[in-house]
Specification:
Blueprint (H helix, E strand, L loop, with lengths): L1 E9 L7 H19 L6 E6 L2 E9 L6 E9 H4 E2 L2 E2 L1 H9 L8 E5 L2 E10 L4 H12 L22 E8 L2 E2 L3 E2 L2 E4 L1 E2 L10 E2 L6 H7 L7 H18 L3 E2 L3 H8 L6 E6 L9 H12 L2 E4 L5 E9 L6 H27 L3 H8 L11 H19 L4 H10 L7 H5 L6 H9 L4 H9 L13 H20 L13 H15 L5 H10 L10 H22 L4 H9 L5 H14 L5 H20 L16 H22 L3 H21 L7 H18 L11
Parallel strand pairs: 9-12
Antiparallel strand pairs: 1-3, 1-9, 2-3, 4-8, 5-6, 7-8, 9-10, 11-12, 13-14, 15-17, 16-18, 17-18
Helix pairs in contact: 1-4, 8-9, 10-11, 11-12, 11-16, 12-15, 12-16, 14-15, 15-16, 16-17, 16-18, 16-19, 17-19, 18-19, 19-20, 20-21, 21-24, 22-24, 22-25, 23-24, 23-25
Length: about 700
């Protein structure tokens, strides 16, 4: 068995390109070699800014050989007067066999000519050459470029390609570059070129001669270990950020952690501002002490071991100082203002074209937050309204103008400085959450404001018919809907979703929408239900159960969640299939009769009951229906499903012994009334038609 290595060398790629490049190469090589029938071990990939590497061990020397039977023309068309016809000759020529090698094969459709065809046996080097030449141009970079007079497009200009199967070059060309065995290392610590004798030697040469670490996981471990050691020496700990760490690992090939300092006077600026300056602009990490207080130090990662570490340290400190000086200036300038001044300025800032100003949105949020608080936490109504009014004020602050990622966060900080209630300040800081899979609002007031902001945006954009299409979603409406869903589930709010969107749309006042207001809300509810469906599917819930729970209505997300949980548990019971089948039969009969115009009374008449089975069903329903109503009021969905199971024997006996669609209209209506009473209750639980049983 052999070892194959591919190294694609280029000018520096953006850090964000590397994870996708690695994943694509791993999946594409695995799929291509499996399709070709070339046995191989695990496909391993790694990357640095200047290279992507594919390493495959245990590669078979040749492709697997197979013999297959290939069917040709019918026997009757293969010969004429015992002479092969053109059909047979063409078939044999296509498969590179002699006519004498063809034979008669008997199939279910009759007798046909057939040949034995051997496939496979191609050398591994030939297969790998074809795979490399096909895969490399298909790497899905976000942006591509062409250089010089070449038509070939890649993320950055290609510089070299190493492709070796053991000690032999795998020959192919991609654009202007041909494969070979020469690699290059770090531009300072081992430029190269270096000759790679065999595939297994590449990684060692890159480390020992090229001065680089090709494995991102090792670069990450090196950065963390060195920085943690330096921070511990001054009594601190590094504030690691996973997203930034992934970016930094993709920016360096020769990682060297550097602990640097800044003036303590900048510690008067809020912690969030200092960390944003370090992380967003300098790709550096903050340091805090054992009590969680920010220290006047930061960690940056170099891509070189400098001769004069002090000089490099001074340079980094000087660059960060300029950013911190800006932040300190904006902090002091903003503190000279107040919310009244900023609210006035918001009337001159456009929200979304066609939806007025940010000032108008602030007043809408004030009203919508008050309405939401009435439904979720009446004691917070005044503070919720205040948070809604002030939510967008920091957009005209100097700090947010300089550091736009701090919008909302700075508003909360200023609110605390200017004497607003803690609930108001925290809500303003949480208005843009959820952010990512974990970061959610922690306060009830923050949850109320976050929902209001998202509902206001959704209502306005749907009113203008600016809805997501395909992957395009410029206003982030999908995130808005998912955010509302996650908040409602976390806090257990029983908010009527349709009423939420109706109030949000009404907040825009008399405005000419693309559709009537009721249709706008209908469209928005359909969109919201789609997001809710995706949310549960992403959590692994069975699609039929999700569709059944949502199909019964999405008045509240809490209700959908509870019904889905009950249906999921019920689906694992022994009686699930038979109970669902029975109820679907009940629902189908009622629906069919209603579609035919049947007059179904609101209640059945006991005097019209004739058969023993219908009397028995009526007796069971007399006891069960009030219990079902109580269970529904208590949101005991599992209890309702248990009642469905207990009703099944009486319903089955009813269908066996009673003709529902009888000639007597009074009897027919009376029997349908009993069935409809069941449908009215259990249809609240689920759309049973969605349960594919």
């Amino acid at each position: 068995m052999s070892t194959f290595v591919l190294e694609i060398g280029s000018e520096e790629l953006p850090s964000r390109f590397l994870p996708g490049e690695e994943a694509f190469l791993a999946s594409s090589f695995t799929a291509a070699l499996d399709e070709k029938g070339l046995a191989h071990g695990a496909v391993k990939t790694c990357s640095t800014p200047r290279r992507a590497i594919v390493l495959i061990e245990d590669v078979a020397p040749v492709q697997e050989e197979k013999e297959e039977e290939v069917m040709g023309p019918p026997l009757r068309a293969a010969y004429k007067d015992n002479v092969p016809t053109r059909a047979l000759e063409g078939f044999c020529r296509t498969h590179n066999v002699d006519v004498a090698d063809a034979y008669v094969a008997t199939t279910a459709k009759g007798e046909y000519m057939a040949v034995k065809k051997r496939t496979g046996g191609q050398p591994a080097a030939d297969i790998l050459a074809g795979v490399c030449a096909a895969v490399i141009p298909q790497i899905p970079f976000a942006k591509r470029m062409r250089w010089q007079s070449h038509d070939f497009a890649y993320a950055r200009p290609l510089q070299w390609i190493v492709a070796l199967l053991d000690d032999q070059v795998v020959p192919f060309a991609v654009g202007p570059v041909e494969s070979g065995r020469e690699t290059y290392g770090h531009r300072v610590h081992g430029r190269g070129p270096f000759t790679v004798p065999a595939a297994g030697d590449l990684m060692g040469i890159l480390r020992e001669k090229g001065g680089i670490e090709p494995l991102g996981s090792v670069r990450r471990e090196t950065i963390i270990a060195d920085a943690d050691r330096a921070a511990a020496a001054i009594g601190g700990r590094v504030l690691w950020n996973d997203a930034l760490m992934q970016e930094v690992v993709g920016l360096v090939e020769h990682p060297v952690s550097l602990l640097a300092d800044f003036d303590t006077k900048y510690l008067e600026v809020p912690r969030e501002v200092l960390l944003t300056s370090m992380q967003s602009h300098q790709k550096s990490f903050g340091v805090e002490d054992a009590e969680g207080r920010l220290m006047p130090h930061f960690v940056t990662v170099l891509n070189i071991t400098p001769e004069d570490i002090g000089l490099v340290k001074h340079g980094w400190e000087r660059v960060l100082r300029a950013r911190l000086e800006d932040a300190r200036f904006f902090w002091h300038e903003d503190l000279k203002a107040n919310f009244d001044l900023w609210l006035e300025k918001l009337d001159h800032v456009i929200f979304i074209r066609g939806l007025g100003t940010m000032g108008e949105q602030s007043r809408r949020l004030e009203s919508l937050c008050a309405w939401l608080a009435e439904a979720c936490a009446p004691e917070l109504k005044e503070k919720a309204a205040r948070a809604g009014l002030l939510a967008k004020a920091d957009l005209v602050s100097g700090m947010v103008g300089e550091f736009d990622t701090l919008q909302g966060i700075m508003g909360g900080i200023y609110a605390g400085k200017w004497g607003e209630a803690p609930e108001v300040a925290q809500a303003i800081g949480e208005q843009y959450l959820p952010a990512g899979p974990d970061k959610m609002p922690e306060s009830v007031n923050g949850a109320i404001l976050a929902m209001a902001v998202k509902a206001d945006t959704l209502a306005g954009c749907f009113g203008l018919n600016q809805v997501p299409t395909g992957t395009a979603d410029p206003q982030g409406l999908r995130r808005c809907a998912i955010g509302i869903i996650r908040i409602l589930l976390k806090f257990g709010f029983e908010v009527n979703v349709r009423e939420l969107f109706e109030h949000a749309l009404a907040g825009y006042g008399e405005r000419e929408w693309k559709f009537p207001a009721s249709q706008v809300v209908d469209n928005l509810m359909a969109f919201f239900q789609g997001r809710l469906r995706n949310h549960y599917q992403a959590l692994g819930a069975a699609t039929p159960l999700v569709d059944a729970a949502i199909g019964a209505g999405t008045i509240t997300v809490k209700g959908v969640d509870g019904r889905l949980a009950a249906l999921t548990a019920f689906s694992g019971s022994e009686s699930y299939v038979s109970s669902v089948q029975t109820f679907k039969r009940v629902a189908n009969i009622v629906a069919k009769q209603q579609a035919a115009g049947a007059d179904i009374p609101a209640a059945w008449n006991a005097a019209l009951l004739q058969e023993d089975a219908e009397k028995a069903l009526a007796a069971v329903l007399d006891e069960a229906l009030p219990a079902l109503d109580s269970l529904w009021a208590a949101a005991d969905y599992a209890g309702m499903l248990a009642r469905l199971d207990s009703l099944r024997p009486a319903v089955d006996a009813f269908f066996e012994h009673v003709m529902v669609a009888c000639e007597d209209a009074a009897l027919r209506g009376n029997r349908l009334a009993m069935l409809k009473a069941m449908v009215d209750r259990f249809s609240l639980l689920a759309d049973f038609a969605a349960l594919q049983i």
